[in-house]
Amino acid sequence: MRLCRTDPWLCHSSAMTSAPVAPTDSPDYAANARFIRPWYWYDWANSAFVTTIGTVLYGPYITSIAKAAACPGQDSDLDCATNLHVLGIPIAPGALAPYTTTFATILSAIVLIFIGAIVDRMERPAKFLGLCAWGGAISAAGLFFVTGTRWQLGAILMVLATVFLGSSLVTYDSMLNQIAAPDDRDKVSSRGWALGYLGGGLLLAVNLVLVTMKPFGLTTGMAVRASMLSAAVWWAVFAIIPIKGMWDLRNAEKPPVAAGESVVGGSIAQLRNTFSDLRAHHPQTMLFLLAYLFFNDGIQTVISSSSLYGAEELKFEQSQLIALILLVQFVAFFGALIFGRIAARVGASKTVLGSLALWTGIVAAAYFVPEKAFIPFVLLGVAIGLVLGGSQALSRSLYSQLVPHKREAEYFALYQAMERGTSWFGTLLFGVVYQLTHTYRLAIIALIIFFVIGGFLLSRVDFREGIRQAGNTQPALI
């Protein structure tokens, strides 16, 4: 009767008859708890790339490279009316960064669904985590060599790093279901995100000094390139901790590979049934993914385009933007922990819905920030920091409850196609609106639609039913 006191839903007659018990071959959470601490460290490792490169430096830097290529000899701070061309398609230099992110996400969406099925069939997932993490770090390190007018190299390397990041996160996120019991996932996920913000913030603080002070006679360009290189090295070095710490974590028994069939071939065969199974047997999971597609697109586009908006529309210096993102990082550390505590009281689903209402207000306010008005922009940054970590961490733990047992990586591949640093439609809309209007204000206000649609769809998800459909244990609070 303890569960009846913590959640009356579980005492309803239909719930008591239909809610399943834990699968007989479910992970031994007590034994796997030793993997939680090293698991946290991959958030610490990859957040340096997401923050220093993806959020702060890449957008403005590749835009300056693109403008130098399109309008040689022209002051890079001025508008450049000449277009770049990719396969004959004209691209405004100011739209290159969001278009690159869009392409990387579309490619990831294709690649990651195969990656997820492959990871589900691997005995030792930490090995694949290492391959993807170090592949991404090497690609990110290559950005150091993007100079002059080499915008093509910068775009290609960013695409590769993004795909490698997504592939590693498919593996990383799927491990959550093996190491944390259903009632513990909000807490574990929130702490991982919080540690990631702390690690990314610490490196960004160093890069702030490097870009602002330009020691040793560094130029601005060299300081930016050195900062991006430091993020790549950080990612590669700290990834050793989770890879080594979780090396002994084994996947649960997976469907066997047929005789004469490779792991890849078996994974492709497995994928043939994924989407039909999702629609026929897991409609609540599918509805959550659809909601997440929209509201996460809005979140990721705000994150990836914030420095571009501040630099190009509001005319802030690079050092100001790095300082603001640094503030957001440390506020987000506390925000993730605070939202985790709120979720423990009212449930993760209600907490995420509340955060989307706050995101809508933040984007609307960003439209009205005057040029060079730094204090209002700082206040918006603090607001973003408070809701950022909580909305992302709790979305991950919510989805983990809806994932069918033994298909964790396959289903998290669908989730990761829409995850951090990437956006299917948000960056595309942002780039198109800018190209048509040549103002980032209309581009940023257009993102409200993603939070409105995503919040509406999320409110329609029946999480209890979705957990039952997935065959998982019901948590006390959802």
Automatic annotation (TrEMBL):
Q: Which residues form the Major facilitator superfamily (MFS) profile domain?
A: 284-478
- Annotated localization: Cell membrane
How does the protein associate with the membrane? Multi-pass membrane protein
Q: Does the keyword Transport apply?
A: yes
- Membrane-crossing ranges are 96-119, 128-147, 153-172, 193-210, 222-241, 287-309, 321-339, 351-368, 374-391, 412-434, 440-458
Q: What's in the keyword line of the UniProt record?
A: Membrane, Transmembrane, Transmembrane helix, Transport
Coarse class of the primary localization is membrane
Recorded hits in Pfam families, A to Z, give:
ATG22
Protein name from the UniProt record: MFS transporter
